[in-house]
Amino acid sequence: MHVDSRVEQAGTRTSAMDTQQQVTVLREGFLVKRGHLVHNWKARWFVLTPDKLIYYKYEGGKRDSCQRGKIMLKDCIITCPFLEYDNRPLVFRLQTKTCVDHFLEACSREERDEWAGDIAAAADRLEDRAGADADADGSPGVSPSTPQGSQPHNINLSKVLEAMYDVHSGINMSNHVEQGRMYSNCFSGSALVDWLVFTQLALNRAEAVTLASALLEEGFLRTVGLRSVEALRTAGLSELFMDDSTALYSFSDGLKKRGCVKAETTLSAVELSGHVIKRGYLLKQGHRRKNWKIRLFVLRSEPSFLHYYDPSKDDIIPVGGFPLRGSLVSSLDDNGVPSGVKGNIQGNLFKIITQSDTHYFIQAPSHREKMEWIDAIREHT
């Protein structure tokens, strides 16, 4: 991840502009999201805009240039806290108007409540704006891109997706060639519309197009091929383009099943008994493979330990940690790649050397958060 000075502290408000999409950024930072079909948890970088919550994948120490999904905020419902996960008390639920549930986890109760509050405020502003438009017209507003009566009602998109995955009756995945390139395991927009009508999940093609657009907006599907990606970037992928034999789509990467590796770590109860001083998401360089991964760091005192957790799992058993007594922590230069750091990783880096001479290279989402972590660790070394 290259996190420069424009990125504010994870979970803080900003007035920056997203230079690629020219939209106002209300808030951005790490959250952990539960998958739709495979209920695994993945850390993602979330960006809150006035009308949607966009999320990106981090891999190799940097944010993907293409979004992994977006959650439309109009008519959404926030449940905070969401207490059905006994081992995840920091989760809140966002339910869209299409009855899709998104479960998001923050690193602290304060951050959870702030995220939920900012999302709810954005949704309220959208509702107030819609109400003002309706009053000005003298009648409830109807979206010009959606013919009246074509919007599917009481459709559970998760159930639609399960039907698409069905081995016997699901949508047919095949290879497609576009501009001399082969794309595997995908389907065309017109094939998707045909399938929705054939399975009677939609009454007509107009309703099927609206339903297909909702699947894309909720992040269940992703665009495939240069033509679809360009249409999404320039025109927001209009519904007209959904019913097109040259528009290619596939299931989102986040819906693919992936195995989990159990952490084999033995820890004493004493080192986990200290008072929690600070929690937050940071990137850490691995010791063997030197790859960068998002970790939830927890700083404890009495005794002073720094533990880190895999955010895709719970925060009960850390994947690693070390005592802070006798450790050294220092900020690394933001100009260029410091010695010991692998990959093109620059900015907001710091290093911890433990008493046993183990070197940890860590990156914070912002300069301010880096200095806060350094000061907090120094107080307990």
Keywords:
single chain; 381 residues; alpha+beta; eight-stranded antiparallel beta sheet; seven-stranded antiparallel beta sheet; 7 helices; 23 strands; 23% helix; disordered N terminus
Overview of this protein structure:
It is a single chain. The protein has 381 residues and is an alpha+beta fold. It has 7 helices and 23 strands. The strands form 5 sheets. Strands 1, 4, 5, 6, 9, 10, 11 and 12 form an 8-stranded antiparallel beta sheet that branches. Strands 20-19-18-17-23-22-21 form a 7-stranded antiparallel beta sheet, with helices on one face. Strands 13-14-16-15 form a 4-stranded antiparallel beta sheet. It is globular. The chain starts with 11 loop residues before the first strand and ends with a helix. Residues 1-21, 141-153 and 256-266 have low confidence and may be disordered.
**Mean of residue pLDDT values:** 78
**Count of β-strands:** 23
Q: Mind telling me the C-alpha Rg?
A: 23 Å
Helix/sheet category: alpha+beta
Q: How are the SSEs ordered, and which strands pair?
A:
Elements: E1 12-13, E2 17-18, E3 23-24, E4 27-34, E5 41-48, E6 52-56, E7 58-59, E8 62-63, E9 69-72, E10 77-79, E11 91-95, E12 101-105, H1 109-137, H2 157-165, E13 174-178, E14 181-188, H3 189-198, H4 205-217, E15 221-224, H5 226-235, H6 239-242, E16 248-251, E17 275-285, E18 292-301, E19 305-309, E20 320-323, E21 328-331, E22 349-353, E23 359-363, H7 367-378
Antiparallel strand pairs: 1-4, 2-3, 4-5, 4-12, 5-6, 6-9, 7-8, 10-11, 11-12, 13-14, 14-16, 15-16, 17-18, 17-23, 18-19, 19-20, 21-22, 22-23
